[in-house]
Amino acid sequence: MPERPRTTVEQHERSQAVDPTVPAAMSLPALRPSAVFPLDVLVPQVRLQTPAVGQRATRPDARLHGLGLTRYIDDMSLPGMLHAKIKRAGVASARIVRVDTSAAEALAGVVAVLTGREIPVNSFGPTFQDQPVLAAERVFHAGDGVAAVAAISEQIAAEALERIVVEYEPLPAVFDPLQALEANAPRVHGGASNVYASKTIRRGDVAYGFAQAARIFEGRYRTQMVEHVPIEPHAAIAEWDPNGRVSIQSSLGRITLGRADLARTLGLPMNRIRLSGTVVGGNFGGKNEITLEPVLALLAKKAGRPVKGVFSRAEEFTASTTRHPFIMDYKTGVTPEGRILAREVRLVLDGGAYCSWSETTLGKACILATGPYRIEHLHVEAMAVYTNKTMTGAMRGFGAPQVCFAYESQMDDIAAALGIDPLELRLRNVFEEGSISPTGQVLQSVVIRKSLEQAAQRFGWREGGR
Amino acid sequence: MSEITLVVNGEQRALSVAAETTLLELLRAQCNLTGAKLGCDVGDCGACTVIVDGEAVNACLMLAVQADGRNVVTIEGLAGRARLHPLQEAFEACGSLQCGFCGPGMILSAKALLDAAPDPSAAEIRDALAGNLCRCTGYTKLIEAVQAAGETIRAAATGPRRAAGQE
Question: Which of A255, A366, B43, B155 is the most buried (most CB within 10 A)?
Fold first, then answer.
């Protein structure tokens, strides 16, 4: 059993004694100490949250979590609130010929129905505004929303979705990013190419480096699409006040950016939109952009009542962002002792149907693609490619895990081929204090050698504990 | 609509439910007990876990009418007036709750285990929590918390003075 921490009450009282800068009123608990449960210390003391490294700390909100009293979006409801559901296309690439919502509107209990054509500015995105709120003319991937319903119950909303008739004219689709690069591939968003973001990093002269190398290793590494799977699905509640201001409570992480996106899609000035980020049941990068918020806002406006929407688990997988699958070609030239002389990297990011945070991911992946190693000659080129699949976006690490998988896999291949201990191979190449990163940054506080050695020692690497 | 009676957190309740209402909807919408969460609605994630007649169940997969005449415990029924349940204490102390969304279900699965077997092995704990998904903590802290709570509960059972002491 871990050592039981000192009671937080004592900590709290002590902190009050030593920190006169915290106003007395601000230290009052959020709920009175006489509440049913022992809730005395629920006010996070901002200045005192990290008293010192090495001390045990408990989360200020953990008690409410454990009591089941934390209010996530789906735990809240407003008077007269309706429930929204979004109809998903189910086809990867098509032109929308016709959307007939009349049968849904006729269903008792349905209060409002929305299609893409009713959205003031039907596009958004953190980098390029290439994503429709609800597809109006064209479906780019199977998870695209094509219509939405607000009804007095979730069951009625779900029933109404089935009554919406959408006629599609199928269009050619492309699912493989390498095929999407070919000259005759269908263009997901038109234009000259499916490549929508690219980046190159060059240092030294790779041709010279490879010419000096004793051995050259080449390999292709691939990673798959990954969904964040927060246990709490995306959720929001929208409500208008009589003055024409909309208040949205949402599980969204980046509310400042989200408000700008909402202002754009709704055609409203930002001061008419109030967006509150609530307690979130897991984000991991997947709740960094608006999803159902503008749909709920418009449904609420049409209905004249608050509207709540919660993604189904299936929608989490098909209609929210995912981690980019990468196709990574690595070519590395080394000396007989395993010093890396040159490395050439080509990254193809499967971007799915929309850009989302692809540009950020691409940049980070590029900078990190050659690994934490001193390499004089390097060339990295990376591109993000549209395909008719679920869009990819931000997820823990922004492309760093994918390239790490590739360069470390290749390091192991090189170590095995040269008969050098994999740890030793890394120690011969790792960044040192003052090393220069691929983009020219002089690195300080570099502890990678020490970290590797300590880790190896702790789990008995040299003794064969691998 | 069907009339059902059940005991929720020790309190007898008479409720009227539609045939398709799940136990989860009943608890959340009609009893205003929102501690059990809807995570997947298909019995995969365990965020909706409650205890029915001593057994941890996915409330999203159980119809409300099936709970007729039974005893249901939700996360709201664990803490007493004076103190938290040892599992709630341990989950807080061990850093087992991050976003907290899986917490109530996780704690109730653990409670069902500890009620049946107060000194479970790590493997038994893993088995009991296998139906509860967590995406933040990585499970280690959850298992530690269940072990810690088990110790507290066993100490309370064998030596009341030590348990009350709390160091």
Answer: A366
Per-residue pLDDT at A258 exceeds 60: yes
Residue among B22, B48, B101 with most chain A CBs within 10 A, to mutate: B101
Note whether residue A273 is domain-resident: no
pLDDT digits (tens, 9 = 90+) for A415-439: 999 999 999 999 999 999 999 999 9
Residues in chain A with CB shorter than 8 Å from the CB of B83 are 38
Number of neighbouring beta carbons within 10 Å of residue A397: 17
Q: Do B37 and A38 touch (CB under 8 A)?
A: no
Q: A458 by DSSP, 3-state: which?
A: helix
Of A5, A233, A282, the CB nearest to B135: A282
Cα R_g (chain A), whole angstroms: 27
The proportion of chain A whose per-residue pLDDT surpasses 90, expressed as a percent, equals 84
Given an 8 Å threshold on Cβ–Cβ distance, is A70 in contact with B100? Answer: yes
Q: What total number of domains does chain A contain?
A: 2
- The pLDDT tens digits for A303-317 are 999 999 999 999 999
Question: Which of A229, A233, A283 lies closest to A255, judged by CA?
Answer: A283
Q: Which of A28, A45, A70 is the last residue of a domain?
A: A70
Per-residue pLDDT of chain B (167 residues; tens, 9 = 90+): 999 999 999 999 999 999 999 999 999 999 999 999 999 999 999 999 999 999 999 999 999 999 999 999 999 999 877 789 999 999 999 999 999 999 999 999 999 999 999 999 999 999 999 999 999 988 999 999 999 999 999 999 886 554 444 43
Kindly calculate the radius of gyration of chain B based on its CA atoms and give it in whole angstroms: 16
pLDDT band at A92 (very low <50, low <70, confident <90, very high): very high
Same domain, yes or no: A65 and A206: no
CATH number, domain B2-77: 3.10.20.30
What are the chain B neighbours of A233 within 8 Å (beta carbons)? 39
Domain boundaries, chain B: 2-77, 86-165
Q: 1.10.150.120, 3.40.640.10, 1.10.10.10, 1.10.260.40: which CATH number matches B86-165?
A: 1.10.150.120
Element (H, E) at B8: strand B2-8
Is A5 at the interface with chain B, CB within 8 A? yes
The shortest CB-CB distance from B94 to any of A2, A67, A282 is to: A2
Residue A418 is assigned to a structural domain of this protein:
yes
Residue A46's pLDDT is 52
Rounded distance, CA A425 to CA A392, Å?
Answer: 34
Q: What is the mean pLDDT of residues A280-289?
A: 94
Give the chain B residue nearest A63 (alpha carbons). B92
Min Cα separation B15/chain A (Å) = 19
The answer to whether the CB of A402 falls within 8 A of the CB of A223 is yes
Look up the pTM and report it. Answer: 0.89
pLDDT at residue A37, rounded to an integer: 52
How many CA atoms, within 13 angstroms, populate the side-chain half-sphere of residue A382? 32
Is A58 in the same domain as A199? no
At residue A18, does pLDDT exceed 60? Answer: no
Q: What are phi and psi of A456, to 5 degrees?
A: -60, -40
Exposure pattern of B67-95 as b/e (b: 16+ CB <10 Å)?
A: beebebbbbbbbbeeeebbbbbbbbbbbb
A267 within some domain: no
The residue segments making up the domain with residue A62 are: 8-70
Candidates B47, B76, B84; nearest CB to A231: B47
What is the interface pTM, i.e. ipTM, of the complex?
0.93
**The domain boundary residue, chosen from A70, A87, A119:** A70
